[in-house]
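Troubleshooting: if your tokenizer reports a length mismatch, compare your output against this known-good record of 554 residues.
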Amino acid sequence: MRLTFIGADHEVTGSCHYLECGETKLLVDCGMEQGVNVYENAELPVSYAQIDYVLLTHAHIDHAGLLPFIYARGFRGKVVTTMATVDLCRIMLKDSAHIQEMEAEWKNRKARRAGEKEIPPLYTLNDAAGVINLLEGYEYDEIVELNDDITLRFIDAGHLLGSASIEVWCREGEETRKIVFSGDIGNINKPLIRDPQYIRDADYVVMECTYGDRSHPRSEEHVEELAQIIQETLDRGGNVVLPAFAVGRTQELLFFLRKIKLDHMVTGHSDFQVYVDSPLAVEATHVFKQNLLRCYDEETRELVESGINPIEFPGLKVTVTSDESKAINFDSRPKVIISASGMCDAGRIRHHLKHNLWRPECTIVFAGYQAVGTLGRSLVDGTDQVRLFGETIEVKAQIRMMEGLSGHADQDGLIRWIRAYKEKPKMTFIVHGDDKVCDIFADRLNREEGIPASAPFSGSVYDLAEGCWLKVTRGIPIQPEKESRRRADGIFARLVAAGERLCRVIKRNEAEPIRIWRNLPIRSMLFAINGIDRIDRKITKKFKEPQGGSGGQT
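Known-good structure output:
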């Protein structure tokens, strides 16, 4: 009964934890790192082909974005999550795969011109489609018995549509332990979705601390602040550009803009247009509309039940095609543009920045966390110029940050969440925060709340049955070449994964050789082995040839 910390340890993105209980091996989240990270992530102690389940807290890419990657490298278990997260992952993972393919193609065009080695995408649309078929959704509060080792339940975390904290009961022999994975704990009084629901008991808690060192302003101020920004910018004849995460933040902004329009909070421009320019955001907005009343807060539910769409209003335009997107910047009328990605590292928002950053009459409004190393963070930190599509763009537009408009609980919300436990957990593991924030929040729990807490680094291992550390690691500073090496080794990793899957099938059936031979799929696999032997002989022959031999590319 072991818990190994893999990702988002003393870092904010790339969430991943490995849990071993009896014969069951599972991951909790499988997220992609975004921005610049400080420390290396430890490798899993087993291959991806050996993972039986991934428990997914929510659909954001920093929690779900590597699911296609592990599928490409042998994972064929189940991805267990909430119903709404299944719906969102179906669109978000395909969008992420499309970005990976497009970025690889762009880099490889440059590499070909420079005579350099090409690299494959991190994963492909086929990989995304494959792992989407493994998604399995459940309702909030439903008891799910995966097998004799693991039972679980999803509790609304109030962070995103479908987001959850996960209660996991682990059984190993006569021992049972309950561990709670907080996922991302939501901010209170957010539009559309419910406040986070509280859990009352656990032996162990794995808890995020993104904003564990600060407080958010009151959410009621955000509508007024956004209305003032729009008023001032439109009066100057400029555009308001809002980089926003396609899922969650875009829909919240639409909720605010509907109220601004309905209450006539912007004067002299009552017919101003609002563009949502992100195919992913458009699809995600449809998911928010479709039969998801169980996730909405009371105010939103009342609107929906009375026939009012809480995220639609006069003047709202959605664009899907690239031609529609380009047309926005050829329209000289002042407007509001919402586009992804929220940190400006990919997507159509970069085109809108190219057309608006150099204009002093425009305003770029950031409404979410900006990771270190992203274009968004550079703009928030006051850079004078940026490079976009090979051009140097002067930053003359106003840069505004709407503080506190976050999907994450602040320090008071985090403390409120952990105080809800009737008995203090035996240990609370602090994760998903900047390096110093993890230590600050763990120290606060220990000193002020009397809650045993630790902020582990990636690679640390804890024995849940015995209640002790089996391995304690320190952070290893990240090596810049690691990511490029991982991509370059992608084809080899896929071959290894295929071999491991074949070995697992053989081992499962070793007790019944006669039945295996009569089983056509297994016979086909034996023919595949002969094919592998032929490939092996060809590769061996190729590398035994003297340099300059007649062999072609392997």
